[in-house]
Amino acid sequence: MKKLPHVSALKVLKNSRRILKNPLPFHYENFEKLGDTFRISIPGEGKVIFSRDPEWVKQVLQKKHRSYSKSKLQTKDLAKYIGYGLLTSEGEHWRTHRRMIQPAFHRQKLKGLLSIMHKAILDELDRIEPNADEDVFDKMGDLAFQVVAKSLFSSNDIRESMTELKSITEENQKMLIKEMRRPYLKTWFTWSGEIGKHLNMAERGREVLDNLIQERTKEKNRVEHDLLDMLLEATYEDGTKMSRKQLIDEVLILFTAGHETTANALSFLLYFLAKDATLQEELYQEVAASKSDTFSFEDMPKFPLAQSCIKETMRIYPPAYFIDRVATEDTEIGSFHLKKGTLVLLSIYELHRHKSFWKDGENFLAKRFVGMDMRQAAEFYYPFGAGPRMCIGNAFADYEMLMVLIEIVKKYQITTKMDTVEINPMISLKPKEVTLSFVPRWGESKL
Description:
Elements (H helix, E strand, L loop, with lengths): L5 E2 L1 H6 L1 H6 L2 H11 L2 E6 L3 E6 L2 H10 L4 E2 L2 H11 L8 H11 L5 H5 L2 H12 L8 E2 H17 L6 H23 L4 H6 L2 H25 L8 H7 L10 H31 L2 H14 L13 H13 L5 E6 L3 E3 L2 E3 L4 E5 H4 L22 H4 L16 H18 E4 L7 E3 L3 E3 L3 E6 L7
Parallel strand pairs: 1-2, 3-9
Antiparallel strand pairs: 2-3, 4-6, 5-13, 6-9, 7-8, 10-13, 11-12
Helix pairs in contact: 5-10, 8-9, 8-19, 9-10, 9-14, 10-12, 12-14, 14-16, 14-19
């Protein structure tokens, strides 16, 4: 620890306002000045190691993953709002439920959801107002939330309930960010009743889901088979099923984490497309050449440029822009000794832009991943994390984003008056606003 360059608590306090607004420029300045790994003294938290070194990422997430656990940011702070599901649990509880839920996200299981996902996407895209400047981030947020909702509750008319749940999750995330970036005010947040207010909101969200699940358990002779059916049917090794409380926790996790990755990535991606009319035309030609009216797993190789655009967007703006871990025992990474309890923050955002590993890494290169052997990039590219705790819904998100991109390219040309996008680092990396206009492709053949 003594060998690592150090950022003092005083420097953190002096920069507290801009860190609260957006900590990424502060991180970048220190990485450039101090190197790929350094430590920071954070008031209320103690010393924290920051790293964008790919070897640290590999060791912490993969090779020595048993020596690390998630930090209290997820296992306590986030969990108090969304419960103890896959994202927030640890140890045997996590391993048991990961094994239990994983089959629902296998390729063959997801194959049965594609028609549900596709219909939800078409329904949401029909809500776009043509030729009007509007914030696409709100639209993509609604779209992604509804896709998760319909994948879970395919037979229910749940838009009103999902609107309320979406509002609750967003407000509680804002509260958590305040707690995370100003840990020295946590006592005040408790005494003032602010945390209590948000805990009550979280309880209301659980009631919304409980009511929907209760309705499902009363249904008979169902035709469609959705994610909720899979979760209701999942069993532990002894044949028993999840309790209602645990089921709600897992569903909340799917809503919270399941829609944000897609909403964020699609918003950034559509901005990049809006800035490049030539790229849009190339994508349109790729979609036209596929001659596909529906979408299946077998169709994916037909869209190498579309897939590259999605991968490149998630390189520049990874939704999980940092990953936190705590050493559960004394361990080493290279020549550095980490004591038990050491908090490590891995900057995926910085690694994905690192000039040593990415040519022209600050810029969007649409064809960067076309024809690339992804094994070449595996050590420097972590849009969904890595190791045993890699995001369980990564395939779901990939298929969803590709379907959305294909359907938008079929129908619209996209324009924007924005020169840049301002980012908003919350629990995931969001854009503050992405104002675009969708111009229908009148006069062109329908695909």
